[in-house]
Design brief:
Blueprint (H helix, E strand, L loop, with lengths): L50 H19 L1 H4 L2 H5 L11 H14 L7 E2 L4 E8 L2 E2 L6 E2 L1 E10 L2 E2 L4 E2 L1 E2 L4 E10 L5 E10 L3 E2 H5 L2 E17 L3 E16 L2 E14 L4 E13 L4 E11 L4 E11 L7 E7 L3 E7 L9 E8 L2 E2 L5 E4 H4 L8
Antiparallel strand pairs: 1-2, 2-5, 3-4, 5-9, 6-7, 8-11, 9-10, 10-12, 12-13, 13-14, 14-15, 15-16, 16-17, 17-18, 18-19, 19-20, 20-21, 20-22
Amino acid sequence: MRVSFKSTLHFSLLGAALGLVACSSGGDGGGGGFIPPNISTQPVAITSDNEGEVAQAGFDGAQGGMGLASATDLVPIAAATAGSNTTSSNINLYRTVRKFVDAAIDKQIDQTSTLSVTGVEFSDSASCAYQDPVTNQTIGSGSESFRASIADFNQQTGEPNSFSNGDYISVTFNNCDYGDGVVQNGSMTMTFNSNVSLMDVNAEVFSMNVTASFNNLSMTSITTGVETLHGTINLAFDVNGTSVSFNMSGSSFYAVSSAESVHLTNFSFSASTDGINSSVQATFTIASTMLDGQITVESQFSSNGAGYPTSGSMTITGDNSQLVVSVNGDGTTATATVNVTLTINGMVQAGYPKDVTWSELGVEVNNAF
């Protein structure tokens, strides 16, 4: 089976802001070194004029954490390890990690691999192009290279029995186009910080701790332009069937596109779900070209997956200013109300607190929260 390492990343404020530095353990990939974009870190002065924009930025971060905990994205681990290439317009960082696991399981060891009693280390490269079985035409271009170190490797089946602390999987793209018009450069590396049995993974009862590194990973297309991810994220999962808890943290991560550049720092996202109801806690500082500055966000939301959150609040701090948005719990649509308080220089502003709908505040939910 030919393994496709195509990175389909959720490029929004969490898949972006989480948006998600540098310090990739994967080494330089195609495309050269990462050059940080010019993003102002001046704290944003929050006012009644920009409160909607500021609230949207904070909400996007919390929503991204919730998306990472959703049953759709976190539960079907067995499908990934069995070789499923799930596709979605909302594929996120966790699914990217799953693709790495998928790749490691499916990758067959070639004649140049170094085999030993304790495990295997191997590297390989391949063209991103393939021959269409119907037209016999060559589709795609560029190349991808793959390297890994797996301690508990089954030489008879050509697959890992488990992943161990210190194992790693890395892929580098060099002008890689699988024929869909998206050209990829840069590299990704996943390093395991704990032991996890693939038998437990397939049974959907396991815990896993990994570090995911993105080194100037860029995706270029005619429709979206250039999108780049760069940074390192610590990921921890605890899965028991449909019950999932998740934590993502890091000190710095960049997401850059033609539409917006984002720099996330000192971030921690914790989320959990029972397959229906979910909750997320998030703390992060985000600087973006959209905000033309920086804000710090602390949020805690709960959801039943129907739309907007059912309860919770977020506190957004800027330049001598603070915005607090609390869910009133009267619905999950854009017409549900929230209580908003704006404080500047320690003084609650005239007209606040106030009850407004999500729509009136100017906050949109990208997907069911």
